[in-house]
Amino acid sequence: MTATITDVARLAGVSMKTVSRVLNNEPNVTAKTRERVQAAAAELRYRPNLSARGLASSRKFLLALLYDNPSAEYIAAIQAGATEACRKRGFHLVVEPIRVPNGEITTELEVLLQRLPVDGVILTPPLSDMNALKDVFDDVKIPYVPIAPSEETKAKVPSVGMDDITAAEEMTQYLISIGHKDIGFIVGAPDHSASHLRKTGFLSAMKAAGLDVPQNRILQGDFSFESGKACAQKLLAGADRPTAIFASNDDMAAAVLSVAGKKNISVPNDLSVAGFDDTALAGVIWPPLTTIRQPIHDMGSRAARMLINGVTKTTEDIPPLMLEHNIIVRASTAPPARQS
Amino acid sequence: MTATITDVARLAGVSMKTVSRVLNNEPNVTAKTRERVQAAAAELRYRPNLSARGLASSRKFLLALLYDNPSAEYIAAIQAGATEACRKRGFHLVVEPIRVPNGEITTELEVLLQRLPVDGVILTPPLSDMNALKDVFDDVKIPYVPIAPSEETKAKVPSVGMDDITAAEEMTQYLISIGHKDIGFIVGAPDHSASHLRKTGFLSAMKAAGLDVPQNRILQGDFSFESGKACAQKLLAGADRPTAIFASNDDMAAAVLSVAGKKNISVPNDLSVAGFDDTALAGVIWPPLTTIRQPIHDMGSRAARMLINGVTKTTEDIPPLMLEHNIIVRASTAPPARQS
DNA sequence: TCGCAAATTGACAGCGCTGTCAATCCTGTC
DNA sequence: GACAGGATTGACAGCGCTGTCAATTTGCGA
User: Fold this and answer.
1) B117/A79 CB distance under 8 A
2) Are residues B42 and B153 located together in one domain of the fold?
3) How many distinct structural domains can be found in chain A?
């Protein structure tokens, strides 16, 4: 059998409680005692039993990641960041896909949270902005951190995110700066607040440059490759097409590339394409995508840290809410060959 | 506070133990009693406490997914399958990335497993074949299911996988059938047993067709996009290049596409490219990739079910070990224009 | 109707750990 | 050297649940 606290206590010649104190880094233990206990624990290769801890205290050493995101890459990056942060602090990450279109999501979530013994929950878009969820979390008293929430949500609960408006502005300014005047824009899923913000940034940059954006240059997608394809087909249908297309994420930008490929429209010579997110996909397709590097990995790790610190009461600095982004210029964008 | 078993017992007018029996679907409870207890549980919105269960019994309702795989898509698919299977049965999935190059992986894993209260572990390649791990699992008495292990591992423990050799043979036969005679092959990471099997399948099909495979047509990759790029560069360097390239996974095939794009080699006119896995990427790039659909999602769900059934002793049928695959022909392959 | 085995139910301990609070051990002070 | 007051340590209960085993009820044949 695995060693228990009692074994360690016996070997170290102290009480169980003292062992517990040492293992949890509580104060009021002499250096000498602490050492003795640690030695005993090491000798017995003692590992705390998380179930027992969870039962006796309120700390479960478990975080949950809830998602319903079409982009596997996005979730993978968040997950990687979160697991990394967890690992360093003795926590573990439980992943739970949640289907949003489900009408009973509130009930579903409540059942889940009441069963699953976790110290906190990370929410990814579009879950981040579902206000109905807030009540559920408050009800079961489980803290949560939404990733990339709307301004409205942001005001209510701690969160991590980035400045989508500015990022979209910068990308648009870049396209304008290399000579594009007629730029198509593919909007993301309406239930993701980032979609709206990115569109706002695009429009504001166009306006600032004195460029007109006709209605038919803005198309509604939903972040999926398929939706990007449909939009690209419309955008690239006739001879009157934009010289550049800015898609709200990389998957949709990849779809534009794909449609252009089929139509023998050369990228970037005849058409520039820009994405958003800098997922692994962006560097893997041809031509590689000019896009915006989102600190997705960091968002995951920051969110996990916020939750863990809330639990362990460590005084580790609470990181800033808004993380940095960068424009990554690759081969999918170039000055327009043809003037519109 | 949340209701406990005691509350339910009181309301139903029975003992805690009887409630426990009902909740766990144990036999020897009258239909009447069972109903009464269920009604009481529903009324109180009772949810079992997993920590308490884990402490009192040996069932933790938690499975772990261990991975160290360069392909996010692959893991995402396994994970999706596993979480789905877990959800249906009241289980949850903990994800744990493990860095294989770490010399002390055995110790690391042992610490992890002794801490983490799970009922079973799903292992993905290349972890599937690390024989050193077997001892650790046996030591801590945690069952595990490797996904896509080698023949050798397969003989030792229950596992789920597919027939890599036949699949690679079929793809090769397909390429030959449309007229290719000079086919380049990019091998996967040497520590993945699938790499070896796929290469074997390729060679056997070529041999069966009476086609010669010169040394310089076989290049060693490691499943990463970067390695695929390096191999493609060599394969496509001079005028003497193959008319088709069969890469051992989609990421490397995407890299071939990317190199061909840069060199203005038109796919599929001047070069056919085939991949393996049918990850989301395959349908998203241009041209979409001819590839082999691996039942990755199913593998995840089958593995989870095997583990769960082992625990719950349900008599649900243990699924067959080898799952079906299909060739998916898309636009990246076509008969060769030029004869070699 | 009675007796017995099988089916059903319940009492109770204890899983491994932590919170509470009381006991003990130190300091430094006069 | 005795004592107050704080630092350190320990005894013990109990978190919510299940396993064991004993108590009780039920069904059935004679």
Assistant:
1) no
2) no
3) 3
